[in-house]
Design goal:
Layout (H helix, E strand, L loop, with lengths): L1 E9 L4 H15 L4 E8 L6 E7 L2 H8 L2 H8 L5 E10 L15
Antiparallel strand pairs: 1-3, 1-4, 2-3
Organism: Advenella kashmirensis (strain DSM 17095 / LMG 22695 / WT001)
Protein name: Antibiotic biosynthesis monooxygenase
Length: 104
C-alpha cells in the first residue's frame, strides 16, 4: 500500500480551483486501487494536508499522470503559498475498527 500526502499553504481559492479540486478528487476515487483519503488542517501553522491511500504505486501514478492533475499542478502558484508531496510505502496500519481501518 502507498500513501500520497499533499501538504500546502493556502492563498485565495477561486472557482477554477474549486472545480479542479472537485474533478481531481472524483478522478482519484474512480481509479482502480484507490483506497481512501483523509484531510487535516493545522490550526497553528495553517497548513493543509490531504492524504490519499493506494493499493499500488501504479494506481497512484494514474493520478499523477492525469491531464487534469497536471493542469492543477502547473497553475498551483495562483492558489498556494507553497506545497510539498510525500509519497510513502505504508508498512502497516493498525488500530481498532472505530475509525474504519484501511487495508490494502
Amino acid at each position: 500500500m502507498y500513501s500520497s500526502t499533499f501538504i500546502f499553504s493556502k492563498k485565495q481559492f477561486d472557482d477554477e480551483f474549486h472545480s479542479l479540486d472537485k474533478t481531481i478528487a472524483e478522478i482519484a476515487r474512480n481509479i482502480d486501487g484507490y483506497l481512501g483519503e483523509e484531510a487535516w488542517e493545522n490550526p497553528v501553522t495553517g497548513l493543509v494536508s490531504n492524504v490519499y491511500y493506494w493499493a499500488s504505486l501504479q494506481a497512484l501514478e494514474k493520478l499523477i499522470h492525469d491531464p487534469v492533475h497536471r493542469q492543477a499542478k502547473a497553475n498551483q502558484a495562483k492558489w498556494l503559498n507553497g506545497y510539498k508531496v510525500v509519497i510513502a510505502q505504508v508498512k502497516d496500519i493498525y488500530g481498532d475498527e472505530r475509525l474504519g481501518i484501511i487495508s490494502g
